[in-house]
Amino acid sequence: MSDMKQEDARTAPVGVWQVLESLRGEELTKWRLAELDNVSSVEMRNLDVLPYPFGWFMACYSDELAIGEVKPLQYFGRDLVLWRGEDGQPRLIDAYCRHLGAHMGYGGKVEGNNLVCPFHAWAYDEQGCVTDVPYAKRLPPSATKPPATQYKTCEENKAVWFWYHPYDEAPKWEVDRFDEVFNADWTEFDKHEWIVRGPIQNLAENGVDAAHFKYVHGTATFPDYQMSFDGHKRTATVEAKMGTPKGEIDGKISYGTVGPGQSWTKFSGISETLLISGVTPIAPDRIHIRFAFTQPKEEADGPMQGLAKALKKDICKQLDQDKVVWDRQKYLNRPIICDGDGPIPAFRSYFSQFYAEWEKEGKKTITSLDVDKKSD
C-alpha cells in the first residue's frame, strides 16, 4: 500500500507581501515603529472627522514603571507624565507644570507619592493639585484646586491603564482580568509593538471585515463567524481552514473587545494561546498597538514549542500585513459595501457609542446586535 502524500495547502503570498518580503529580524522590528514617507495628511484621508474614542487605554506594562520612576507619555494629542509612588500606585497627570510650563516627564522626581517639578520643585498629587512650593509662604489658591482634566488609572493584567474621556466623565466599566496572565503554569508575556499611521476606527473595524482574511492574510477559505455586540463589549468566534505545509487544518479564534482600547484573542486548533492587546491613540493618524502573548508552559517549552512559536510569529505577521493597508488607508464616511462583506455598517453604528462628541450631536448608535455568518 503506497503512502498518501499530504498536499501543501498554503495559499500563494498575499498582495501586501511585496512590502514585507525583504524584512526580517531587527529590520522588521524597526519597520513596525518607524516613521513613514509619502503619507497623506489627516485632512486628505478624512481622519479629522473621527474624534478620539473614550475608554480605558494602556499606558505601559507594569514592569516598565518601577517605584519612584517617572515616564513621559504622548497620547490623545497630549503630553502626559506617569509615575509610580512609594505606595506602588501609578499616577497620571498632564505633563506641564502649572507654574511656568516645564515638562515634568523630563527631570521630574518622585517624593513620597507626589511628583516634583524639576524647574522650581513644585509638588503635585495624582489629581494635579499643587501640594507644596518649598520657597512660598502660602500656596496660590488656584494651584491647590484640581484641573478640569483628570486621568483615573488602574493596574490589571500586568499593565497600567488610564481612562480617557473628552468631557472628563467617570469610568463607565472596568478593565477585564484574565486569570491565565497570573497562572504559574502559563508563560510570562512575549511582547510586540507597532505604530500604525491611522485611527483606532480602522483597526477596530478590521475585526468584522470577513472578506479581508483571505486576501490580506491568505486564509484558505472565507471564514465562518459569529459576533455579538453587547454594550461596551464585543465578542466573536471565527472558524476558518488554515493552510499549512501539511494540508488544511481547522482553526478557531475567539476574540473580544472591552471598549475601544482593550482586546483579547484566544487561539485553538494549533497551539493554545492567549493574546492581550492594548491599542492607544497617539494622534488622529497614529496609534500605539501592543501585543502580549502567554501560552501554557507545557506547550511553549515542551515538544510542541515549535508550533507555539510559529503561531505567535504568524499572528504578528498578520498585524504586519494589516499595517501595510492601515498606514495609508482613507476613512470613507459612505463606503460601498457588497453582500460578501462583514457587518461593517452595523459595527460603525456600534463603535460610534464611544465617540462622546457624536453622542452630543445626536448621532444614532446601537449597543446590541448578534451576527451569524456561514460562508457559502
TrEMBL record:
<dbReference type="Pfam" id="PF00355">
    <property type="entry name" value="Rieske"/>
</dbReference>
<keyword id="KW-0408">Iron</keyword>
<feature type="domain" description="Rieske">
    <location>
        <begin position="57"/>
        <end position="141"/>
    </location>
</feature>
<keyword id="KW-0479">Metal-binding</keyword>
<keyword id="KW-0812">Transmembrane</keyword>
<keyword id="KW-0001">2Fe-2S</keyword>
<keyword id="KW-0560">Oxidoreductase</keyword>
<keyword id="KW-1133">Transmembrane helix</keyword>
<dbReference type="GO" id="GO:0016020">
    <property type="term" value="C:membrane"/>
</dbReference>
<dbReference type="GO" id="GO:0046872">
    <property type="term" value="F:metal ion binding"/>
</dbReference>
<comment type="pathway">
    <text>Hormone biosynthesis.</text>
</comment>
<keyword id="KW-0411">Iron-sulfur</keyword>
<dbReference type="InterPro" id="IPR045605">
    <property type="entry name" value="KshA-like_C"/>
</dbReference>
<dbReference type="InterPro" id="IPR036922">
    <property type="entry name" value="Rieske_2Fe-2S_sf"/>
</dbReference>
<dbReference type="InterPro" id="IPR050584">
    <property type="entry name" value="Cholesterol_7-desaturase"/>
</dbReference>
<dbReference type="Pfam" id="PF19298">
    <property type="entry name" value="KshA_C"/>
</dbReference>
<dbReference type="GO" id="GO:0170056">
    <property type="term" value="F:cholesterol 7-desaturase [NAD(P)H] activity"/>
</dbReference>
<dbReference type="GO" id="GO:0008203">
    <property type="term" value="P:cholesterol metabolic process"/>
</dbReference>
<comment type="similarity">
    <text>Belongs to the cholesterol 7-desaturase family.</text>
</comment>
<dbReference type="InterPro" id="IPR017941">
    <property type="entry name" value="Rieske_2Fe-2S"/>
</dbReference>
<dbReference type="GO" id="GO:0005737">
    <property type="term" value="C:cytoplasm"/>
</dbReference>
<comment type="pathway">
    <text>Steroid hormone biosynthesis; dafachronic acid biosynthesis.</text>
</comment>
<dbReference type="GO" id="GO:0051537">
    <property type="term" value="F:2 iron, 2 sulfur cluster binding"/>
</dbReference>
<protein>
    <recommendedName>
        <fullName>cholesterol 7-desaturase</fullName>
        <ecNumber>1.14.19.21</ecNumber>
    </recommendedName>
</protein>
<keyword id="KW-0472">Membrane</keyword>
